[in-house]
Amino acid sequence: MNFGFSEEPIMLRDQVSRFMHESWPMSSVRELILLLMSAAVSIAVSVVMLTAAFSVYAAGAATNTAPMYKASSKSPAMDILSNSYGYSSNAPSALEIGHQAPDFSLP
After folding, report:
1. Pairing of the two strands 78-79 and 68-69
2. CA 103 to chain CA mean position, Å
3. Can you name the residues that pair with 91 across neighbouring β-strands?
4. DSSP 45
5. pLDDT score at 20
6. pTM of model > 0.90
7. How far apart (Å, rounded) are the C-alpha atoms in residues 9 and 25?
8. 94 neighbors 86 (Cβ within 8 angstroms)
9. Cα dist from 72 to 60, 75, 77, 84, whole Å
């Protein structure tokens, strides 16, 4: 058995090689390869950064703690989720969105 190429594939290979050498000078090929390599590096860096950001987010989500807010140095830290729009468990009568404040008079 002959596992080598026949005459036609060898002629085709030679014609394609000659065409590429005439159409694409080696400097252009090198430029293209460098451009593709820099794009690949940029994509790899972006993937690493996104992976790191996601792992930090996932670690924070796993603890299931709400972000804390401190209005001033003298006030205690408050849980942002339970204290949104002035409502908290410490002030059950606080107004919520859509409620109207009762009329009042000044002394």
Report:
1. antiparallel
2. 50
3. 88
4. H
5. 84
6. no
7. 24
8. yes
9. 25, 5, 9, 17
For tokens 């002035």, the residue is 86
Per-residue pLDDT of the chain (107 residues; tens, 9 = 90+): 778 888 999 999 999 989 888 888 888 888 888 999 999 999 999 999 888 888 877 766 555 565 566 666 676 666 555 544 454 555 556 566 666 666 667 66
Which pair of tokens denotes residue 83?
């204290």
Q: Name the one residue in this structure whose structure tokens are 């468990």.
A: 89
Tokens 């992976």: give the residue. 51
Half-sphere exposure for 23 (CA within 13 Å, toward CB): 6
Long-range contacts of 13-16 (CB under 8 A, 24+ apart): none
Residue 20's alpha-carbon distances to 8, 31, 35, 37, 71, in angstroms, are: 18, 15, 19, 21, 69
